[in-house]
Amino acid sequence: MDIVCLDLEGVLVPEIWIAFAEASGIPELKRTTRDEPDYDKLMNWRLGILKEHGLGLKEIQATIAKIDPIPGAKEFLDELRSLTQVIIISDTFSQFAGPLMAKLGYPTIFCNSLEVAESGEITGFKMRCEKSKYTTVKALQSIGYDTIASGDSHNDLGMIEASKAGFLFKSTDAIKKEHPELKAFETYEELMAAIKEVLA
Description:
- By secondary structure, the protein is α/β, with parallel strands linked by helices.
- It has a domain at 2-13 and 69-113 and 128-199: 3-Layer(aba) Sandwich (Rossmann fold), CATH 3.40.50.1000.
- Helix content is 44%, strand content 21%.
- The protein is built from nine helices and seven strands, in the order βααααβαββαβαβαβα.
- It has a seven-stranded mixed sheet, with helices on both faces.
- Strand 5, helix 7 and strand 6 (165-169) form a beta-alpha-beta unit.
- The termini are close together.
C-alpha cells in the first residue's frame, strides 16, 4: 500500500508568506522554511512583525484569496490521486489552507492551526504534533503504508529521508547541494515519472 505525501507551499502553491510580504510591502516576511530550519523560531518572528505593523488574519486571508496554484499543480495532483492515495502534509495553518484546497480540488491536508483573538490578531499557533511531517510519515508507516514523499524545504527533509522514496521538488541550490543523495526535480512531469516508477 503506497501513499504519497506532498508539501504544499513551493510545491503546489506559491509561498503564502512571500506573497503576503509583497502585498504588504514588508520584505522581512519573505523569510521561509527554506531559509530558517527552526519553524517555531520563524513563526514567532513572523508574529512579532505582524504585531508591530498591526496586521492580522484578515489581511493575510485577503492575499491568500488572490493566490492560484502553481501552473500544472492541479492537473498533477488530479493524475496522482487517480493512481494512489495522496496526503498534503504542510506546516501551514487551516485558516490559510482552506481557499487553496478549494482551488486544488479539495485534497486531504494535514496542517496546523492559528490562535486568533476576536480582534483578528494572530496571538499564537498550535502545531499538530512535533516534527509534524516526519511524525506523520512514521505514523502512516506504522499502519501499513509505504510512503513516497516530496517537498522543497528544510522541514520536508525528515519525511523525505524516512520514506521508501523521497524527492526534492523546486528546492533551493543550497538544499540540493547539502543533500546530493536526494533526486531533485523542477517539473511536475519529472516528479510524476519518478513517482510512477516507484509505484510500478
